[in-house]
Amino acid sequence: MTDMPELVGGALCLDFVNTVDPRHAANRFDYLSEYRALVAWARHAGAIEAAAAPGLLRRAARQPAAAREVLRRSIRLREVLYRIFASAMARRPPPRDAFDRLNHELGWAIAAARLTRSRAGFVLQWGDHRSRLDQVLLPVIRSAVDLLIDGPLDRVRECPGPGNCGWLFIDLSKNGSRRWCDMRTCGNRAKAHRHYTRIRGRA
């Protein structure tokens, strides 16, 4: 299994969008190449508990067509979320088809929710979906809705890193000046590129 992507988005839904690298490259690498990889990412990102993964993989083995359909939905949702957040960054309304698709996914997620009571009070629980192949999408959808409603939507940024990075992240820096998804990767690559350009300019 290929190493999982760094979790630099600051929100689960953005880390989900960042499962292609670089986003805008023609030969980008897709971390969600199969259903097994989707489950691995969900474990990695904390979208599901580790104990849930074996059951999901066994069910996927019994229902390969259903697993492929969940993977297709997942990739479609990922691209829908990118388009919606890219529009928000540009201060434009979301594309109608993308917004409709998110609402479609939200519909079944809400239908699966239930109100429960704990010692701390009432809690909205998004159902017990241990046997559903698409349970990995529930936390992603909820994260996207939370970010769109509660923000900080105005702090969502897209990394301009070398190689057409395009990863999304929430800029929580005090003055809103964070530029890179991760200074250790894109930031250092940009520094190296600027240094190389200066050296060539002196030659």
Overall 3D shape: globular
What is the CATH class name? Mainly Alpha
In total, how many domains does the architecture comprise? 1
Structural class call reads mainly alpha
Radius of gyration: 19 Å
Quote the CATH topology: Jann2411-like fold
Q: CATH H-level name... which superfamily? A: Jann2411-like domain
List the total number of helices.
Answer: 7
Q: Provide the succession of SSEs.
A: HEEHHHHEEHEEH
- Strand segment tally: 6
Helical percentage: 40-55%
- Gap from first CA to last CA: 44 Å
Output mean pLDDT: 87
| Share of residues in strands | 5-15%
What do you see in this structure?
Strands 1-2 form a two-stranded antiparallel sheet. It contains seven helices and six strands, in the order H-E-E-H-H-H-H-E-E-H-E-E-H. The protein is globular. The protein is 51% helix and 10% strand. The protein has one domain: Orthogonal Bundle (Jann2411-like fold), CATH 1.10.3300. The longest helix has 26 residues, at 64-89. The protein is mostly helical. The protein has helices at residues 12-17, 35-45, 53-62, 64-89, 96-111, 137-150, 183-202, and strands spanning 20-21, 29-30, 114-118, 121-125, 156-158, 168-170.
